[in-house]
Write a structure and sequence with these properties.
165 residues; alpha+beta; Pnp Oxidase, Chain A; 4 helices; 17% helix; globular
Length: 165
């Protein structure tokens, strides 16, 4: 019989997978909303689908779900403070954050690597997370993509030059 997987050891092992950092954003009657998310990936080109995972106990995602749409903002190498700000609970995550609405009104952060505006396509329960699939309806123009990405690796924000050395 296989021994149960230790949760801390599992998290530490997964920390060896470098991932990009995103802010999932939306807007409701109370204003802009969002949270930091590192579990993001492409799903399909036809139709254009992406996915992210969020904890089932998130207080922000249910507000986004109610609107039926969200944007994924892929953070640039210099936006580690933005990632930290959106990861905190109980604070004004949008304090000092510049953003622009998409054609549908979803907030996209300034100076990101790129962004995708999406409609919720599907949602699936997966343990202590929800897997959310979004259909991309608008995206940042090619000239927007002028920075390197912010990465998360071994429990810390990193840059491409950090990983290469």
């Amino acid at each position: 019989m296989t021994a149960p997987i230790d949760a801390r050891a599992f998290r530490d092992a997964l920390g060896h997978f470098a991932s990009g950092i995103t802010i999932v954003s939306g807007i409701d009657a109370d204003g802009p909303i969002g949270f930091t998310c590192q579990s993001f990936y492409s799903v399909s080109v036809d139709p254009p689908l992406i996915s992210f995972s969020v904890m089932t106990n998130s207080t922000t995602y249910p507000r986004i779900r109610e609107t039926g749409r969200f944007a994924v903002n892929v953070l640039s190498h210099h936006q580690d403070a933005v990632a930290s700000q959106f990861a905190r609970k109980g604070t004004d995550k949008w304090a000092g954050i510049s953003w622009t609405p998409t054609a549908a009104g979803t907030p996209v952060l300034h100076d990101t690597l790129m962004w995708l505006d999406c409609e919720i396509w599907a949602e699936h329960e997966a343990g202590d997370h929800l897997i959310v699939i979004g259909r991309v309806v608008e995206m940042s123009p090619a000239e927007w993509h002028r920075h390197e990405p912010l990465l998360y690796f071994k429990g810390a924000y990193r840059h491409l030059r950090d990983i290469a050395s």
